[in-house]
Amino acid sequence: MDPDMLFHAASRLAMLGWLALALSPLAPRATQAVATTVPLVLSAGYAALILVSWAGAPGGFGSLADVMRLFTAPTVALAGWVHYLAFDLLVGAWEARTARREGLPHVLLLPCLVLTFLFGPAGLLLFLSIRAARQTVLPRELEA
Question: Does the first or last residue of the chain, that is N or C, have fewer Cβ atoms within 10 Å of its Cβ?
Answer without folding.
Answer: C
